[in-house]
Amino acid sequence: MTESENEVLYTPLYDRHVALGARLIPFAGWMMPVQYAGILHEHRLVRSKAGLFDLGHMGQVEVTGPDSLAFLQYVASNDVAKIEPGKAQYALLTNEHGGVVDDIIIYRPNEGEGYFVCVNASNKEKDVAWMQRWAAERGDLDVTVTDISDKTGMIAIQGPDSEQIMTPLVANPIADLDYFAWMPNAINGIPVRLARTGYTGEDGFEIYSDISDVGAIWDAVYAAGQDYGLEAIGLGARDTLRLEARMPLYGNEMDDVTTPLEAGLGWAVKLDKGDFIGRDKLVAQKEAGVPRKTIGFVIEGRSASPRSHFPLRVDGREVGFVTSGAFSPTLETNLGLGLVEADIAGIGKPIDVIIRDRAVPAVQVKTPFYKRGQS
Amino acid sequence: MASPEDLQYTKSHEWVRVEGDLATVGLADYAQNELGDITYLELPEVGDSIVAGEPLGVVESVKAASDIYAPLGGEVVERNETAIGSPELVNQSPYGDAWLIKVRLADQAELDALMDVAAYETFLETEAGH
Fold first, then answer.
1. pLDDT > 50? residue A1
2. Quick check: A162 and A50 in contact, CB under 8 A?
3. pLDDT at B1
4. Is the CATH number of domain B22-122 3.50.50.60?
5. Which DSSP helix (H) or strand (E) runs through B14?
6. Mean pLDDT over residues A330-337, rounded?
7. Beta carbons of B36 and A303 less than 8 Å apart
């Protein structure tokens, strides 16, 4: 499959979404379910039980060759050398200006010198071109970057009951699989790579497989989950779940011109690991003082919702903008993340969200807004 | 949900119930269903004037904020504070508990521009793809 501006792509699960009564919307070139029963219901189900996500739009890239590690160390911000076999790591692909090309998860297999990288749907073409360009420019490195998205299937089960639902389905025990670890496994005899990762703030698994097996895997997990109340979850709840857990969304919290330091992702940037693309700019920004910071804010009581790009003001002066905002189904209040002038940031400090020309008072709070196990 | 027969409707999916010179305004089932979980209502104050075809307020769902358009003009004489406090009522009871405002009609002739239930049902089937 190739992507063009007017071609809409369908995952292998499209017919199942239609049968489940999903509302489908074009997202990053794909026709994807935004909701089934309703965003609030789906969100709360993932927090309390478990939900099943079609992630067929996400991209997967294989990095192979003897210099795979050296290459990833050069294009990614985190210290890839720290990833043990069978583990995974969150990192950023940074550009020469210190901005972010994409945020990615790097998985290291139990064996071999290669890596498996999961990238955002909206950035897949850009990421692949970017990594292939640097693989070519770094002629000293023996590495190959291959887009394997078209042959890779991806779904996720997320929520506190995920392990119980998956346990009878898998060939190899998963109880000891750590967060940000993955393992080869099989579901009803179908080979999968089962990763204890996700984008909701809950326990759960992302399941990678051959694309031709996605339907059978989805059906098996869906059926096994029925005793637990599992339902399919759309992109709408995926967004509110990740926001409560303060997981960034590319294009909202960071982009080509916003640095990871500004986006509050400094924990995934290891400036002392050796050179990588944009490192000099990030070192300079850190030394000079990061000019903007990402804050979390909550609007107490019933209010209109903050949304992306709404202005933020302090004492009537514009100091930044909302990067992500929503009604939080768990906290039952409106909240959001904002990118503001650095000296504005401070837990407990007031900030106004400008909603339809009106200043709505908010207060800066610690993030994440929600932590696992909190009701 | 079937559209009640005693109401009149707009193409932007508001409904109106007329009793004398008072009109009760709400959101049609189609609108609440399209919006999804409703989290906030912004309605005019009692004493405000609204103008037919102009936005009278805003309804917000988890997904988006949308204008509510005035089906007719007049002075707002009451607004539904219960619905403002519990906006999910609009999802649960769009034609009942979750009426939005009551308006003293300025011009009875404006009612002629509204659709009766038969016209609205036809509109839903054709324009809205139902």
1. no
2. yes
3. 81
4. no
5. strand B14-19
6. 97
7. no
Question: What is the C-alpha separation between A117 and A108, in angstroms, rounded?
Answer: 9
pLDDT at B2: 85
CA distance B36 to chain A (A): 6
Q: Which of residues 66-85 of B touch A (CB under 8 A)?
A: 84-85
Structure tokens at A109: 């297999």
Site of tokens 């009106």: A358
Task: Spell out the domain ranges in chain B.
Answer: 22-122
DSSP A287-345: HH--SEEEEEEEE-SS-PPP-TT-EEEETTEEEEEEEEEEEETTTTEEEEEEEEEGGG-
Nearest Cα residue in chain A from B85: A302
- pLDDT attached to residue A6: 65
Does residue A36 belong to the interface with chain B, where contact is any CB pair within 8 Å? no
DSSP 8-state code for residue A16: H
CB contact under 8 Å between B62 and A240, yes or no, is yes
User: Nearest to residue A277, comparing CAs of A105, A85, A127?
Assistant: A127
Give the burial string for A81-106 (b: 16+ CB within 10 Å, else e): eebeebbbbbbbbbbeebbbbbbbbb
Q: Do the Cβ atoms of A327 and B39 come within 8 Å?
A: yes
Mean pLDDT confidence for A193-211? 98
ipTM: 0.90
Taken in order of first residue, the domains within chain A and their CATH numbers are 9-56+151-243 (3.30.1360.120), 59-147 (3.30.70.1400), 291-370 (2.40.30.110)
B65 vs A: CB within 8 A:
yes
Q: Which residue from B37, B65, B84 is facing A38, i.e. has the nearest CB?
A: B37
Q: pLDDT confidence of A375, banded at 50, 70, 90?
A: low
